[in-house]
Amino acid sequence: MLLGLSIAVKLVPVIGVPALLRRHPLRVAIPAVLTFALLYVPYVLATGIAVIGFLPGYLAEEGYDDGSRFALLSVVLPGPASIVAAGILLLVTAVLVWRRTDPANPWLGQVVMIGSTMLIVTPHYSWYALLLVPFIALSRRWSGWPCRPPSPPSCWCRPSTSPVFRSRSRSSSCWPALVTARI
Q1: Whole-model pTM?
Q2: Which of 50, 59, 74, 103 is least surrounded by CB atoms within 10 angstroms?
C-alpha cells in the first residue's frame, strides 16, 4: 500500500520496484496497483486524459521526446534510436534485477536499478540521484562511495579529488557507474 501511495505522489519510486517483486510479486504489486488506481480514479473521472497534466510538455521540454536527453546514448545513437535503446536497456536491467535480486536483501537490486536508470536516462536535475542514497546505505555497501552531493551527468565522470578515494584507489567519481560495477 505504501508503495502505491509513493508512486501516486511521484512516479520516480517505480524505478525500485523490480527488486521488490522477487519474493512475493503479487503481495507487492496488487496492493500497490490498487492503491495507485484508487487514488487516481477520481482524477481520471473528473479530468479524463488531462490527468497526465504537464507530463508530455515536461518530456518534450527536457528532450526525452526526441532522444536528445539521453546524454550517454545520444553520443553513439541518433535521437529516435536512443529512445528505443534506452527502453530496451531499462527493460533488460529491470528483468535482470527482478531475476537476480536476493529476496532477503532487495536494497542492492534497487541500487543497481536506480543507478542504471540514472546512467541511461541522465536526468538534468541532480536531485534525482539522491534516490540512490538510502538504498546504498541499506545495502551496506557504502565504503568507497563519494562523500559529496550528486552532480549532473556531465560531472559524474571526472577524477575524484576526495582523499577517501585517493587513499583507496585512483578511481574516478563515476559513482552511478560504480553502482553497477560493484556487484
Answers
A1: 0.71
A2: 50
